[in-house]
């Protein structure tokens, strides 16, 4: 079943409308190839095409990806929304962690491999093993086009144990070997073994200025760097670090992103994380229409609005706790003080401390040469004397308790943070909105949101948040924008009092 009505799909195909890029794919029956709606190849007749929600289902139907428009580089979408929750979580895990086995994915979901396979086939008409294989192949194709990584390393990055199975499955499913795909790329860039440059597309319009300024205002200077047309940050995945540098290319509706990493198996996770952080899978048309339907005045809806994401839940929690009762500027000052002091203390422990250092991978040297390091770890905060922070002792105790909790239960759900003294429902909902894959979190008790809804009501404009589903996170952000920014942390504390 298609996610969009056929008449809309047909019009978008004929217009080659970039706003629909990644929302559907076109299988051409006469050639056996499938394309993005923006493909510049000669347009086939309507009777000779079939439509698919995503690249995986098109490949599973026997179509090969087009070498001209490259479906592997299309923006993502919420194509699997509406399926059974466990299946949706399984899709996300399979897409982000290419090296995990089906049994390991099922274990993370808390179900048996047999039951996971049954659910997957029932709801998606494809087995999880087949889905994982096609996901690996599409990612391999993207790397073959956009990097000069040796085929052996491409295989490693895509979850294959060696080049041979990649070569076999690529030939079987696309009709081309990895070497043939690479030869088709005339503009191949030179890439170091530890660096990979790829292009991540989005559906226009994209409010880069809004999301850039949002990150700039909240920048942790030793962890991230935001400039006029780019953003650079070190992400932490367990004991490993990944540095990305994303340059906005608005004329091509994409970002050019260079990843620096030593473990290529983290590349797919890094890409998925960056897409979340910059909200590249956003569907701006649907969101714009939903916000207006919910009652937002059209002149107050920012076209191409994106939700700035946070990848590390620990970082998100620290930002929320440190930001209580102070301005954004003051909060970021304290976060920078926390980051710089604890990392300076780590260095001062001397060479003997390197075995237990929070940044043991060799990329740390390269990152520090750029002045960037990973965000402080839960272990660092839990073991630190936080007397240097200029905030009430109660908040310092909350920060340490939170760090200890994350150290002991790193996989705990955000809702479980409510057991920590000093953390209330507003903080949990805010962090959920910034870190979750779901764009449907509405902060109904937020004072700024409530005040803006009241002011609109005074102008005879009624806002009904339920009509913005499943995009209510953007409604929250839009109401904040009406007040010229996000809510001040002093208001956050008042909100917390409702739940303590």
From TrEMBL:
Cofactor(s) listed: Zn(2+)
Gene3D superfamilies (UniProt xref): DNA Methylphosphotriester Repair Domain (3.40.10.10), DNA-3-methyladenine glycosylase AlkA, N-terminal domain (3.30.310.20), Helix-hairpin-Helix base-excision DNA repair enzymes (C-terminal) (1.10.1670.10), Homeodomain-like (1.10.10.60), Hypothetical protein, domain 2 (1.10.340.30)
Example GO biological process: base-excision repair, AP site formation
SMART domains, A to Z: AlkA_N, HTH_ARAC
Domain (HTH araC/xylS-type): residue spans on this chain: 81-184
Statement: the UniProt record of this protein carries the keyword DNA damage: yes
Record protein name field: AraC family transcriptional regulator
Any Pfam family matching the protein: Ada_Zn_binding
Signal peptide: none
Keywords assigned: Activator, DNA damage, DNA repair, Methyltransferase, Transcription, Transcription regulation, Transferase
GO cellular component, one term: cytoplasm
One Gene Ontology term of the molecular function aspect: DNA-7-methylguanine glycosylase activity
Keyword DNA repair annotated: yes
Domain of life: Bacteria
């Amino acid at each position: 079943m298609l996610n969009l009505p056929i008449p809309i799909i047909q019009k978008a195909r004929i217009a080659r409308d970039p706003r629909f890029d990644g929302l559907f794919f076109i299988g051409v029956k006469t050639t056996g190839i499938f394309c993005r709606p923006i493909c510049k190849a000669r347009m086939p007749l309507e009777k000779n095409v079939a439509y698919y929600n995503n690249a995986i289902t098109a490949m599973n139907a026997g179509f090969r990806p087009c070498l001209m428009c490259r479906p592997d580089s299309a923006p993502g979408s919420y194509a699997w929304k509406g399926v059974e929750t466990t299946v949706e979580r399984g899709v996300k895990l399979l897409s982000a962690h290419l090296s995990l086995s089906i049994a390991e994915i099922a274990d993370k979901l808390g179900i048996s491999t047999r039951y996971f396979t049954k659910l997957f086939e029932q709801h998606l008409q494809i087995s999880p093993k087949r889905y994982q294989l096609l996901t690996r192949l599409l990612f391999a194709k993207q790397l073959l086009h956009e990097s000069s990584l040796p085929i052996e390393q491409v295989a490693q990055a895509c979850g294959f144990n060696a080049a041979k199975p990649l070569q076999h499955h690529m030939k079987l499913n696309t009709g081309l070997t990895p070497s043939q795909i690479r030869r088709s790329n005339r503009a191949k860039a030179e890439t170091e073994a530890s660096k990979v440059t790829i292009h991540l597309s989005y559906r226009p319009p994209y409010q880069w200025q809004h999301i850039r300024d949002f990150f700039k205002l909240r920048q942790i200077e030793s962890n991230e760097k935001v400039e006029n047309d780019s953003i650079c940050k070190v992400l932490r995945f367990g004991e490993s670090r990944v540095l990305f540098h994303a340059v906005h290319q608005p004329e091509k509706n994409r970002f050019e992103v260079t990843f620096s990493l030593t473990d290529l198996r983290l590349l797919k996770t890094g890409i998925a994380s960056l897409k979340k952080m910059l909200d590249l899978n956003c569907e701006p048309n649907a969101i714009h229409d939903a916000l207006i339907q919910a009652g937002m005045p059209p002149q107050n809806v920012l076209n191409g609005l994106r939700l700035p994401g946070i990848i590390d839940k620990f970082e998100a929690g620290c930002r929320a706790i440190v930001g209580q009762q102070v301005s954004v500027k003051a909060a970021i000052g304290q976060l920078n003080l926390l980051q710089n002091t604890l990392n300076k203390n780590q260095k001062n422990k001397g060479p003997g401390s390197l075995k237990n250092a929070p940044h043991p991978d060799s990329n740390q040297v390269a990152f520090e040469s750029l002045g960037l390091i990973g965000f402080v770890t839960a272990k660092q905060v839990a073991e630190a004397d936080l007397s240097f922070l200029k905030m009430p002792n109660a908040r310092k105790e909350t920060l340490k308790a939170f760090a200890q909790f994350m150290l002991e239960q790193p996989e705990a759900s955000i809702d479980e943070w409510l057991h920590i003294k000093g953390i209330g429902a507003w903080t949990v909902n805010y962090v959920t909105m910034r870190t979750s894959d779901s764009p449907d979190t509405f902060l109904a008790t937020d004072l700024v949101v409530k005040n803006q809804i009241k002011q609109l009501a005074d102008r005879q404009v009624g806002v009904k948040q339920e009509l913005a589903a499943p995009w209510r996170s953007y409604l929250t952000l839009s109401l904040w924008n009406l007040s010229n920014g996000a809510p001040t942390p002093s208001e956050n504390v008042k909100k917390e009092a409702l739940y303590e």
